[in-house]
Request: fold
Amino acid sequence: MIGSEALAAGALTRHALRSRFVALHPDVYVPCDEDLTAVTRARAAWLWSRRRGVVAGHSASALHGANWVDRRAPAQLLYEHRRPPAGIRTWSDTVADDETEVIGDVLATNPARTAFDLACRNPVGDAVAAIDALARATRLKVADAELVAERYKGHRNIRRARRALALVDAGAESPRETWLRLTVIEAGYPPPQTQIPVYGEYGELVAVVDIGWEELKIALEYEGDHHRTDRRQLRRDIDRYEALHALGWIAIRVTADHTRGGVLARLATAWDRRT
Reply:
């Protein structure tokens, strides 16, 4: 909330404001026990702009419900202000009315424009991971983001943006799955499918493969820590991989400890067996 507005309206006394709230930005307060999520930071930044800015980039992605947005990162705002306070990053850029929408009561870029900004303002790998998450949360059509890119074809980062948009796949369920997919594409392999359903002899669903090549029956599966620490998940994984093996699939299991070279070496071995 904006502290001066709450005081002027009589909603709070100065004592209540000092004792029950903490200033996140000049004149912008949150309750002392507020969970500082990416969404909270986005809304606070918008209030700091006196509701004149447009929440953009990663912050807009968080408002749209995307996962994996860093809650510790500064909020991002399309707003002409060269010296924002700590915790807010601003930039000035053209934004059309049809590229924004109101989320709750906060003005933010729509999914297509958000994807374009993410593609322009981040390294390709980071951008693709962020847009993958946005697409999964909003059912973003990449073609819509590409239309925004065409509108701003003179943008200084347009080539990078187009490259990132061409690599987006909403089937990625985590940034590490995006990393895995981009790793094999950059190594020269055909773009893999994502979330491939695998059925058994009687038509039962055996597994949904993270990424892979269905015609070759090669799967790449990224496993987070919960696959190791959750006993039920570990048991399900054992049954799942046994079933995949019985159906003729080569399943390559990848964790955070595996290097790019190690993953590609294992994939090359599997590829040679199939081709």
